[in-house]
Amino acid sequence: MGGAVVDDAPPGVKAPDGGWGWAVLVGCFVITGFSYAFPKAVSVFFKELIREFGVGYSDTAWISSILLAMLYGTGPLCSVLVNRFGCRPVMMVGGLFASLGMILASFATSIIHIYLCAGVITGLGLALNFQPSLIMLNRYFSEKRPLANGLAAAGSPVALCCLSPLGQILQYHYGWRGGFLILGGMLLNCCACGALMRPLLPPKKPLELEESGRAVAEEEKKKKKPQPKKKLLDFSVFRDRGFVIYTVAASIMVLGLFVPPVFVVSYAKHLQYEDTKSALLLTILGFVDMFARPLSGLVAGTKWVRPRAVYLFSFAMIFNGCTDLIGSQATDYVGLVVFCIFFGMSYGMVGALQFEVLMAIVGTEKFSSAIGLVLLMEAIAVLVGPPGAGRLLDATHSYMYVFLLAGCEVTLSAIVLALGNFFCITKKQEDQEAKMEMAVTASEKEGLNRAVEAEDDEEEPRERENGKMKAGEEAMTVKETGEGGDETQL
């Protein structure tokens, strides 16, 4: 495989659920933070870029849009590279790309250069880190996977709370060019996180067992036909009803999920509140989100909830959608604060559960391909959702309709997921159970018939033996009777 160690979990190797897995979790925490928070943190430099290049706010907003588009849209490419070379080398190369993009952007002479460097190159680098880190987390954790997913997802609000103030400090002391250069150096930490993604190896065996195992394996290789190569991108996941339902629901959800965080600050300013007070709303949202994600993972890992994680995910989406619908009626700052608290709770639940549910649906083997295809579908929705809400705002000049639309989209996605899972997946499982029962019944009938036939076959020779025994006894009786007659005559 090009000299790379491909880190597919070897057959028979159980997920450690700890040990080095905690180091993998730390790396995933950092990567998730950079991937989700970086597009928002870069917006701190937009005013300086507008002055430097004489462009509008909509032109600078394309930097964050391109970053998100690369993070989501390159999912299939990441899947192919991971299946070809493994997670560790892909992540380390991705860390170099992410850092190189920001360093080159610090020397930009036009906004187009920043699009290409900070948008495309850095976005590609973050994508090459984000997806493989989730794949490795799935391989290292099984029983504790919901908790691990929740803790890793908490990296997003933590990084957002740290990177935004840091960006403001860097801009004040070093300007946007110095800030981009320092952030580029910070992104080199992605390479260190990639180095933590050690491939899972089978446990070591004694030398005698290894030699015997090799001999057996060589004999089996000679007998068996060569196995087909693993697909770089497995489209067979679309045959799974659960995956199709999840992909459709997730795509609808993303249309409205990211709209409230984008518009809530502008909503507060529209109500004539100060900039600092308005910006505090995002801090409140992020703080609540920070604690909601690990707690949601902890709840999802309980014995009673884990088999029903899909329905918990549906509840989280309904909770989020209803929060948007109720929050659209807010008319003062207190109402917006209450909205941000409940939105942070529901947003954290969705963030902690979305990939856990996908892992549970497709399994470890197909997860690397499934996540790439899901992210590609979500990329389209990410590019359509916020701009579509912006057009609705321009047409109506009312934030109420923007939040109502977002709430309806998220609630619809929850209904699609819950009903699809209940009617399609449950019915499919019942059909399979019925088939198994029929098969068991048929096999039992065959077994009974064979037992009856075997008993009949056994009875025939027994009857023959009994007949022979009776004939022998009769012959002996006749003989004895004949001898007795002869004696009487004498």
TrEMBL record:
Disordered: annotated segments: 446-490
Classification via PROSITE patterns: MFS
Membrane topology: Multi-pass membrane protein
Annotated Basic and acidic residues bias: 461-482
Compartmental location: Basolateral cell membrane
Predominant location category: membrane
Keyword field: Cell membrane, Membrane, Symport, Transmembrane, Transmembrane helix, Transport
Transmembrane segments: 20-39, 60-82, 102-126, 147-166, 178-197, 243-268, 280-302, 309-327, 333-355, 367-386, 398-425
Domain Major facilitator superfamily (MFS) profile residues, every copy: 21-432
Entry GO terms, CC: basolateral plasma membrane
SUPFAM superfamilies referenced in this protein's UniProt entry, alphabetically: MFS general substrate transporter (SSF103473)
One MF annotation (Gene Ontology) recorded for this entry: lactate:proton symporter activity
Record Pfam families: MFS_1
CDD domains recorded: MFS_MCT3_4
Recorded family membership: Belongs to the major facilitator superfamily. Monocarboxylate porter (TC 2.A.1.13) family.
PANTHER family noted in UniProt: MONOCARBOXYLATE TRANSPORTER, MONOCARBOXYLATE TRANSPORTER 4
Name of this chain's protein: Solute carrier family 16 member 3
Species, as recorded: Seriola lalandi dorsalis
Lineage, opening ranks: Eukaryota, Metazoa, Chordata, Craniata, Vertebrata
This protein's encoding gene: SLC16A3
